[in-house]
Amino acid sequence: MLFADINLLDADFAIKHHQWVGVRDGRIAYIGSVPPAPDVAATFGETYDGTGRLLMPALYNAHAHAPMTLLRGYAENLPLQRWLEEKCFPFEAKMTAEDCYWGTVLACAEMARFGVVSFSDMYYATEERARAVLEAGMKANMCEGLVAFEEKPYAEYPICAQMEALVRDWHGAGDGRIRIDYNIHSEYLSTETVCRDILDIVRGTDLRLHIHLSETEKEVRECRERHGGLSPVQYFESLGLFDVPVTAAHCVWVDDADLDILQQHGVFVANNPASNMKLGSGFAPIPEMLRRGIPVCLGSDGMASNNNHNLFHDMYLQALIYKGATLDPTAVTPQQALAAAMRTGALSQGREDCGIVAAGARADLCVLDTTGPSWCPAPDPVYNVVYAGDGADVVLTMCDGEVIYRAGEWPTIDVERAKAECVARTARIISEL
Questions:
Q1: How many domains is the chain partitioned into structurally?
Q2: pLDDT averaged over the chain?
Q3: Which residue intervals define the domain Amidohydrolase-related in the entry (predicted)?
Q4: How far is it, in rounded angstroms, from Cα 246 to Cα 183?
Q5: Alpha helices, DSSP H only, in 25-182?
Q6: N or C terminus: which one in the chain shows less Cβ crowding within 10 Å?
Q7: What is the rounded distance in angstroms from the CA atom of residue 393 to the CA atom of residue 364?
Q8: Are 106 and 173 in the same domain?
Q9: Does pTM surpass 0.90?
């Protein structure tokens, strides 16, 4: 596809007007302020009229639980532990692998609609989830959820063999669109032995870890009681866990000593501002993390604690709430919020050639309609993207050069069937509880 005479959000988060961007073989092959020569232009296929449009990198959701679309609107107005124990865990115990498949299909449709091409997903039924992602033409880092209470070797848990098979059969599938991560749910749902064993597996490979970390005050307090005063961050560091690439979701209740550790090890922090507020968990100290150079990315979390996959909403919150919380209107800039949702999110997934509009990069792109009233006037459209724009402005989403959403249509997903399946499956599960 050749995007013709379109405005472009470049790698420095500046707007370049009247650009031509050519996509070929899944990558960006041409960027220029003049059209390519006619013989070159012909190699890009369709020409897309960029009038009134903004082309920018697609978004990367750094922390999700895709099948929890089935729980949307079900577990409401509860603090985290009651939300988990009274609502989520009983519901999830009734979910089948096919339930997880259809929940993921619907999540893919919703994310593609809002410009997201890739997500880091922590849940069960990984093969079915991966199948849904590949069918949708999207990308995902996937890990099989692990809950470990018994102090025994990881090899004695059935998930160990399951993970070996997933890495063998799915890691790198779809020309790298599927990546398998290892998972340690959290300090309170794991053991020291299991953590050390998983670390031994991941170390020295191209695999990564995805964890929940210091999400609530209760989690941190009880961890200190169990581990001689160590916070979850300090506990995991004592095991050597941060010696491998880690994406740590939440990191709400962290102190200066914890931040020193995250900074030293380059841990990716997946902030989930909507979920953290909805569950009353608090606010991660994102301005201080950014000041220290800790790589901050952005996640939606599951639909039982956010209710939508519109990552533009989370980006808006990321840029806004810390201004009020710190009484500093410069606490998080729109450019930092964009970086979290784009380039840093891609890097958190180990996708070095993604999250940026540059020649040779993967063609993960989205196009926004900028003709609506919320875009007018726009002396600097970057600010409109974050403060006035919305996922509903997305009119095209492209993953690896293939269109996965365009003007109300999903070429790769039967959205109406996915909706019907999810409604029926949620009703069935609720009737069984």
A1: 2
A2: 97
A3: 55-403
A4: 10
A5: 38-41, 80-82, 89-93, 97-113, 126-136, 158-170, 173-176
A6: C
A7: 17
A8: yes
A9: yes
